[in-house]
Amino acid sequence: MERHDSCSEWPVERQHEDCLSESTQERCPVNFPVAVVLPAAGSGERTGLSTPKQFCRILGRPLISYTIHAFERVCWIDNIVVVVAKESHDMMADILHKYNHTKVKIVEGGPTRHRSIFNGLLAFSEPGVGPKLQKPKVVIIHDAVRPFLEEDFLLKITLAAKEQGASGAVRPLVSTVVAATTGGCLDYSLERAKYRASETPQAFIYDIIYQAYQQCSEAEFQFGTECLDLALQHCGTRAQLIEGPPTLWKVTHKQDLASAEAVIKESLSQSACIISGECTETQNLSIWMKNCLTAAGMRVDAIPNTERSMTLSASRNVIKLSVNSSDFVEIREMMKRCEESKDFLLYPVIILWVFLNVSDQVSLRQENDEASTIMNLAEEAKKINIFLYCVQLRYSKVSTEWERTVNRLCQLTMALIRDRNAAFTGQMLQA
Amino acid sequence: MERHDSCSEWPVERQHEDCLSESTQERCPVNFPVAVVLPAAGSGERTGLSTPKQFCRILGRPLISYTIHAFERVCWIDNIVVVVAKESHDMMADILHKYNHTKVKIVEGGPTRHRSIFNGLLAFSEPGVGPKLQKPKVVIIHDAVRPFLEEDFLLKITLAAKEQGASGAVRPLVSTVVAATTGGCLDYSLERAKYRASETPQAFIYDIIYQAYQQCSEAEFQFGTECLDLALQHCGTRAQLIEGPPTLWKVTHKQDLASAEAVIKESLSQSACIISGECTETQNLSIWMKNCLTAAGMRVDAIPNTERSMTLSASRNVIKLSVNSSDFVEIREMMKRCEESKDFLLYPVIILWVFLNVSDQVSLRQENDEASTIMNLAEEAKKINIFLYCVQLRYSKVSTEWERTVNRLCQLTMALIRDRNAAFTGQMLQA
């Protein structure tokens, strides 16, 4: 990977693969070192849950891991400093290990948000435990509880900070802001159009925000909430405000966790891959399904067999069609290949196994045995973050009946994919 | 029902039953007429959906119907005026009819929020189409897209408005509010603790807010967003600001619909009623289940048989235990009684039918017939908003195996109740 290297601090080699610059076949748009500070020492009392919200699980994975991953996949981001409360250190270390977050260093938080951020910044300047991190040109400050970040927005924020010294995401106000009298009555209300909600990510030239924090008063450390304001007050740097997408919203209350889960589930439900097998019946069924799922807005690939080179976890939703007999070997092979992909733990992969019965020649005993084999296989699969579901359907020569059955199959398929509910794995559903 | 009647405009008879004042065995806390104006003429462009968000469906029912119901169940609220865009009139009328909203009148909206609210207020003062509504002492103004309202908070707002002329819900700011320069840079930021987000409900002495709107300038009608401000500017009335619960939040973006659904689903998953039958096996199973579900935080009643007087829809989740044979008559009877309850369409009721197999003497043919009968019954049930699911389990004399089976049954039960997914009705799951 070539890059325009104007900065002597810049590491020459980068290993990360899914970089915007590469996917668009352009040179890397950032030619200076960039790091991230992620304050995550809050207790999350507003969620009303005992676990701080950054550690609440969505599809089995802690929220903070989603946020970390959003930065880690960006090739021009070098280091991520996560600032956590002392009592969360071990939990955080476990999360980094389990989800293979290799760019992250943990730093201990302070009693307030500003103290925690400053601690994070110090990791680049002062020797702590372990090796000192390389000082970045630009540092991004973000909330651990805003997991949805696109690389192009991070790029905007980063380049604006490089140019202007500071930058921050803003959003239109959802509610009018009012000031109260001491008696709790309306004093005045602000004209909504003139103001913005300040969100994160924010970015700063490292030396500016570091200097701002060094000059911070005790009162600012204790009661302040706005990093952009520190840069303005102490360094005279006026941050560029950049309108961010609605997905930047902050997981604040308990119901926001459900929103976050819905956003993630929706993004995992965009596409599916149907493996039709070689026989005519399943290939026909595959065409029906493809049409039906495509009409419902999914992108669907249909292929006769899995190829060795294919990354199953790329589509996240694999639909395997079988006639009568069930081929456990192939499912086991799929599971193995999902597990081999480096990010199999990040999001659950769905394998939906569809049995097309074209004859009645199946005895009850055989069915029961099969049901319990499938249940056990699904238990195994769940351990490696694969959700295995089964649907069976009976072929009918009556075309209206067959159409109804296939439609029901597609309804079930979409519900299973969108729902991604671990409780229903191993079940044999009827279409 | 007795009440202290100090207001001559006050209707003497009230029919509504689930009033706070009655449930707490006190006199009705409000002795003056109260009405509601619900502006719902917005296009909801921020959701990114083609349907305005107030008409988006949650568990099959439009969001606005939840908001209406939250007011309609309060006995001291007399009328609700819903203000909708002209093109939504017929859809709104259908919603009122389908969900039996009897206290509601539809009024046509204007081009801005303030115009729409004023139109709503005029319904109490000016003759329009149909009979003029009784003028209230206090009028509550609320957003159609904030469906979660408790009666006690409405009471606070209403009484404060009666005393002070105006009142409104506020919430702490989630983000710092900033002002931008004309160049899009940070001008200054507000001290977060001094300001509040103004939410709804808001309440006003009718004559005050009516007068305020009559004096409104064209610019205010066009760009204003804050009713409390109108009362202050035109009538000198300083609204009492009252801190509201986090559930007041506004469905603004697409992901908020998922939050709202999660909140509703959670409130429907608090309790269950197990109908154990008379035989020892199912009664034992009922005890196991009750313990397991109670440990997971549910309130569980276990009774041997349904009583004629029992309102099945009250618990929203009915678990019926059967041994071997399936008693369709009893399920049909349950369905009939759910349908008879006046509010069966408001929330889907779950009937979970658990089959305990204590013998292997079931032939495949019989199972297939049964499966299709259940599937058809579930289709019928869905039409009257009942979700029928089935789980079968096999009794085991090996205690560890039996324990595992019962645990799996409880996991499935909770997942089905919490998920309330229409796609899985009629399925026969295995525990």
From TrEMBL, chains A, B:
GO terms of biological process kind: isoprenoid biosynthetic process; protein O-linked glycosylation via mannose
EC numbers: 2.7.7.40
D-ribitol-5-phosphate cytidylyltransferase C-terminal domain segment(s): 270-409
Recorded metabolic or biological pathway in which this protein acts: Protein modification; protein glycosylation
Record's catalysed reaction(s): D-ribose 5-phosphate + CTP + H(+) = CDP-D-ribose + diphosphate; D-ribitol 5-phosphate + CTP + H(+) = CDP-L-ribitol + diphosphate; D-ribulose 5-phosphate + CTP + H(+) = CDP-D-ribulose + diphosphate
MF (Gene Ontology): D-ribitol-5-phosphate cytidylyltransferase activity
The keyword Cytoplasm belongs to this UniProt entry's keyword annotation: yes
Pfam assignment, any one: IspD
Keywords: Cytoplasm, Nucleotidyltransferase, Transferase
InterPro entries to which the protein is assigned, alphabetical: IspD/TarI, ISPD_C, ISPD_synthase_CS, Nucleotide-diphossugar_trans
Principal place of residence: cytoplasm
Similarity field: Belongs to the IspD/TarI cytidylyltransferase family. IspD subfamily.
Identification of the protein by name: D-ribitol-5-phosphate cytidylyltransferase
Lineage: Eukaryota, Metazoa, Chordata, Craniata, Vertebrata
This protein's encoding gene: crppa
